[in-house]
Amino acid sequence: MIKDVVKDLKLSATLRMNEISRDLESKGKKVFKFGFGQSPFQVPDDVVSELKNNAYKNKYLPMQGLPELREAIAKFVSLKKNYAYKAENILIGPGTKELMFLLHILFDGEVLLPTPSWVSYEPQAILGRNKVHWIETTREKNWFPTAEDIEKVILKNKEKNYLLFLNSPNNPSGQICENLKEISELVKKNNILVLSDEIYSELSFQDNFKSISNFCPEQTIISNGLSKWCGAGGWRLGHFVIPNELAKLKNLLKVLASETFSAVSAPIQYAAIAAYKNDHSLYLNNSREILKLVGEYVYDNLKSNKVLINKPQGGFYIMPEFLDKKFKNSEEMCANLLNDTGVAILPGSDFGFSKDRLIARLSFTDFDGKNFMDNLSKQKKLDYNFINKFAPKIVEGTKRLKAWVESN
């Protein structure tokens, strides 16, 4: 009754951890939600107002998306990328996750995933019946592949079509890819299709964020949306930016969209125009400043000769590797940590690492973002005392995790 391609899949690891945390809380256990990654900040007031103003809109919108929204996104992205995108290059979806799934269904070839990669890339590739190649990376290279690493895979069969997923800033590592030009030259040489997942790009802690689309725009689909930078994960609005050179692919994605989600919620699309047209620089600067401070607090308190970890460069994740713990695998380790301390983190095996490598993803968003941001302007200088006051669960959860590490 159930297809083989589906029966061995499990619930999405991030959503599963969120459900486990909620269940434990309902039973009275204090849980530090370092496992589920979502923005701690509220949606900007002007965007919320537009949602209220357009709540009465109840008609189906064009399947590709509201023209005014696509125009706003095209201008927003063109300015960032210094490349002339038009409204016709934009496809609106109910979150980028759905659009990526349709891309996997459409694409006929093999999928290149750096280790680590977001938890849903591989299951979606499996559902799309495309073979996955995991490309090993190193901490020293920010957990991103070199062009040589990628080339080793494609040289085994150059006749295949290849789709490379590149997520920077990265979930789960919190790192930024710094060898984009090198990778882009390989992409152009071998006609590789790239999905550049830039959902955390507005939360980069570095100035002048670069995308692989800056180097090979004709072969790059940019994936982005409202969930991370705008605090609107539950609104479910994402978009693809697809260059003219990939018009055939875009048109077929539209066909698949027409047979699946039909069109994204009308009120949310109207509200999203304000997100892309209005000036949110203060909101974004405050978001980045807070996340950078909190991330560095966790990093400074966890790094040791027992924990290998890179300082976060964007988004809201870090990826510790525990050296002296005695567990069979990372899943057993994370279960033990949750039971002993109430700290919920995700095992590295969910992101492509071998199970016996004791590596995990930690999300540092368990704090009241509104309260933190409202008080930001009252501080002349941000320091870790600010975190003690406005992110107490980050402080206590980090202390518990550190004590657990040192208890060995």
Strand and helix map with partners:
Layout: H1 4-7, H2 13-26, E1 32-33, H3 45-53, H4 67-81, E2 90-93, H5 96-106, E3 110-114, H6 121-127, E4 131-135, H7 147-154, E5 162-167, H8 180-190, E6 193-197, E7 220-225, E8 238-241, H9 247-258, H10 266-277, H11 281-302, E9 307-308, E10 317-318, E11 321-322, H12 330-341, E12 343-344, E13 346-347, E14 360-363, H13 369-374, H14 384-390, H15 392-406
Parallel strand pairs: 1-12, 3-4, 3-5, 5-6, 6-7
Antiparallel strand pairs: 2-8, 7-8, 9-11, 10-14, 13-14
Helix pairs in contact: 3-10, 4-10, 5-6, 5-9, 11-15
Structure write-up:
The chain is α/β, with parallel strands linked by helices. It folds into 2 domains: 4-42 and 281-403, Alpha-Beta Complex (Aspartate Aminotransferase, domain 1), CATH 3.90.1150.10; 47-277, Aspartate Aminotransferase, domain 2. Helix content is 40%, strand content 12%. It contains 15 helices and 14 strands. The chain has helices spanning 4-7, 13-26, 45-53, 67-81, 96-106, 121-127, 147-154, 180-190, 247-258, 266-277, 281-302, 330-341, 369-374, 384-390, 392-406; strands at 32-33, 90-93, 110-114, 131-135, 162-167, 193-197, 220-225, 238-241, 307-308, 317-318, 321-322, 343-344, 346-347, 360-363. The strands form 4 sheets. The protein has a 7-stranded mixed β-sheet, with helices on both faces. Helix 8 (180-190) links the parallel strand 5 and strand 6 (193-197). The longest helix is centred in the C-terminal third of the chain and has 22 residues, at 281-302.
